[in-house]
Amino acid sequence: MSGLRIFDENAPGAPMLDTGDPAAIARELGAIGVRFERWDSPVTLDDDAEPEAILAAYQPYLDRLMGETGAGSADVIKMTPDHPQAGALREKFLNEHIHTEDEIRFFVRGSGHFVLHTSGRVYDALCTQGDLISVPANIRHWFDAGAKPDFIALRVFTDQSGWVAHFTGDAISAQFPVA
Ligand SMILES: CSCCC(=O)C(=O)O
Ligand SMILES: [Fe+2]
Ligand code: NI
């Protein structure tokens, strides 16, 4: 189940809000400019579907997203618990960073935490299968799917250069273990 916990940035371990209600999640995230939607996708895929097949199956949805945002490209990120780069990729996403474009992700399968840091608060959004999240450009955030990551997500890029992160150097993610 999707979830949202909101903390004061100085009070890890004491959430001021903890909800699994999709409408509340969308409302709270919407208040900081983050789009969150649950999609009832009729697409069904084999467990071993290739990225090309996943992209093709979701093409109508991707076209809609790209049309709305003017975005240019999409890819598939698939993490499995035994992925040889699981540890390295975890480290890469786990440090607080920003992007100069919106971070648009759709969870085809599995789950992961997007953690947003803004206005003195930390928002831990647990995204699960069927969730669309769009994190606006320049919002500080990190991502964690744990030591045994298990998810497939679509990534939509507006920037031709693909995934580019600017790390803030703030070690706050170490204070907020989420996965
Ligand atoms: C679910 S996509 C991996 C996370 C990511 O792209 C990011 O934090 O920038
Ligand atoms: Fe990011
Ligand atoms: Ni802060």
Structure commentary:
Pathway: Amino-acid biosynthesis; L-methionine biosynthesis via salvage pathway; L-methionine from S-methyl-5-thio-alpha-D-ribose 1-phosphate: step 5/6. This protein is an alpha+beta fold. It contains four helices and eleven strands. The protein has helices at 22-30, 51-57, 59-69, 86-94; strands at 3-8, 17-19, 35-38, 73-79, 97-98, 103-118, 121-128, 131-135, 140-144, 151-157, 166-167. Strands 1, 2, 3, 4, 6, 7, 8, 9 and 10 form a nine-stranded antiparallel sheet that branches. A two-stranded antiparallel sheet has the order 5-11. Strand 6 (103-118) and strand 7 form a beta hairpin. It is globular, with a radius of gyration of 16 Å. The mean pLDDT is 94. Residues 77, 93, 103, 105, 112, 143, 153, 155, 163, 165 line the site of 4-(methylsulfanyl)-2-oxobutanoic acid.
Domain module tally: 1
Which stretches of 5+ consecutive residues score pLDDT under 50? none
**Distance linking N and C termini:** 14 Å
Shape: globular
CATH homologous superfamily annotation: Jelly Rolls
CATH hierarchy class name: Mainly Beta
| H/I helix tally | 4
Estimate the mean pLDDT confidence.
Answer: 94
Q: Beta-strand percentage?
A: 35-45%
If you consult CATH, what is the topology? Jelly Rolls
CATH architectural designation? Sandwich
What is the helical fraction, as a range of percent? 10-25%
How many beta-strand runs? 11
Q: Over the alpha carbons, how many angstroms does the gyration radius reach?
A: 16 Å
SSE order = EEHEHHEHEEEEEEE
Hetero groups: 4-(methylsulfanyl)-2-oxobutanoic acid, fe (ii) ion, nickel (II) ion
Subunit structure: Monomer.
GO molecular function, one term: dioxygenase activity
Binding site for Ni(2+): 97, 99, 103, 141
InterPro entries: ARD, ARD_bac, RmlC-like_jellyroll, RmlC_Cupin_sf
